[in-house]
């Protein structure tokens, strides 16, 4: 009796013969077709924001090359306007959000990593390797970038003397010598991939744009190294 009622109900709802039809669960949980695109869009926007932040950050820190006074004045401006106190944690949150969005596609499990490694070797495609570099540098940046931000933002105000003392201590010099190329590679490749993926550059312009991105990455690593050297020999 109950079974018959269920069949009748089923046939009324789906217009089929209950005994011949199996239930298709995808009817009840319809996959959203647009959410992946929205999440990709958000990943790109947070990434673009972080790229702009990193370029500005490297130039601001490099102000020490013009003298300790130049860096102190800029640091004071960012603290007096609360941009460091508010902007710093916001950058941290954006970094974390960007990571969570990107983690949807990162192979975390050993077997997934083995598969992607084999595919990359099979495909012989430069952009696939670039993507693997992105995934690896992302992990390093997440950990080292968070430690760095915590150390700097819990020791305000920022002054050239404090930064120099940190770097002259040795540990932070090695720390930055690792973090600097990781960040610049990630930022440079991210910039190139955004342009390719979202169609800002055409297929035939790819090679030229990639060369430009390599030069840009090299320039920022060079600026970073000069700045570290300046901190290393700064006497205040
Ligand atoms: C708002 C947040 C941030 C502030 C206030 C900040 C501030 C600073 C300061 C003052 C220095 C000089 C060295 C020192 O004092 O120890 C520095 C260096 C550095 N920071 Fe940041 N930073 C921030 C976020 C980040 C992030 C998110 C990254 C990358 C994930 C990063 C990467 C670096 C690197 C690589 C250096 C070495 C610079 C060089 O080679 O010239 N920073 N930062």
Topology:
Elements: H1 2-14, H2 35-61, H3 68-80, H4 83-102, H5 110-123, H6 126-153, H7 160-168, H8 171-197, H9 206-232
Account of the protein in words:
- The chain has 236 residues and is mainly α.
- The chain has a single domain (34-232), classed as Up-down Bundle (3 helical TM bundles of succinate and fumarate reductases).
- It has helices spanning 2-14, 35-61, 68-80, 83-102, 110-123, 126-153, 160-168, 171-197, 206-232.
- The protein is globular and about 85 Å long.
- 16% of the residues are buried.
- The structure holds protoporphyrin IX containing FE (HEM).
- Protoporphyrin IX containing FE binds at residues 57, 61, 84, 87-88, 91, 95, 141, 145, 148-149, 152-153, 158, 163, 166, 172, 176, 179-180, 183, 224, 227-228.
Share in β-strands: under 5%
Instruction: State Rg.
Output: 25 Å
Cofactors and ligands present? protoporphyrin IX containing FE
Could you state the CATH homologous superfamily? Fumarate reductase/succinate dehydrogenase, transmembrane subunit
Point out poorly predicted stretches. none
User: Would you identify the CATH architecture?
Assistant: Up-down Bundle
| C-alpha geometry | globular
- Give the N-to-C terminal Cα separation: 91 Å
- Number of discrete helical segments: 9
What's the overall average pLDDT, rounded? Answer: 87
Q: What is the CATH topology? A: 3 helical TM bundles of succinate and fumarate reductases
Q: Can you tell me the CATH class?
A: Mainly Alpha
């Amino acid at each position: 009796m109950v079974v018959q009622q269920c069949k009748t109900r089923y046939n009324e709802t789906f217009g089929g013969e209950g005994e011949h039809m199996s239930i298709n669960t995808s009817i009840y949980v319809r996959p959203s077709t647009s959410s992946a695109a929205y999440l990709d869009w958000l990943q790109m926007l947070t990434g673009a924001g972080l790229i702009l932040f990193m370029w500005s950050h490297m130039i601001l820190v490099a102000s020490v090359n013009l003298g300790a006074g130049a860096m102190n004045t800029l640091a004071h401006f960012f603290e007096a306007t609360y941009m460091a106190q508010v902007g710093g944690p916001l950058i941290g949150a954006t970094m974390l959000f960007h990571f969570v969005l990107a983690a949807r596609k990162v192979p975390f499990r050993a077997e997934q990593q083995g598969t992607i490694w084999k595919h990359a070797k099979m495909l012989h495609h430069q952009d696939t390797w670039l993507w693997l570099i992105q995934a690896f540098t992302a992990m390093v940046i997440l950990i080292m970038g968070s430690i760095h931000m915590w150390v700097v933002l819990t020791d305000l105000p920022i002054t050239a003397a404090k930064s120099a003392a940190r770097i002259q201590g040795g540990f932070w010099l090695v720390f930055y010598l690792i973090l600097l190329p990781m960040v610049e590679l990630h930022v440079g490749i991210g910039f190139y991939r955004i342009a390719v993926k979202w169609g800002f550059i055409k297929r035939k312009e790819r090679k030229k744009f990639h060369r430009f991105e390599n030069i840009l990455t090299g320039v920022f690593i060079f600026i970073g190294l000069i700045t570290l050297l300046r901190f290393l020999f700064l006497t205040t």
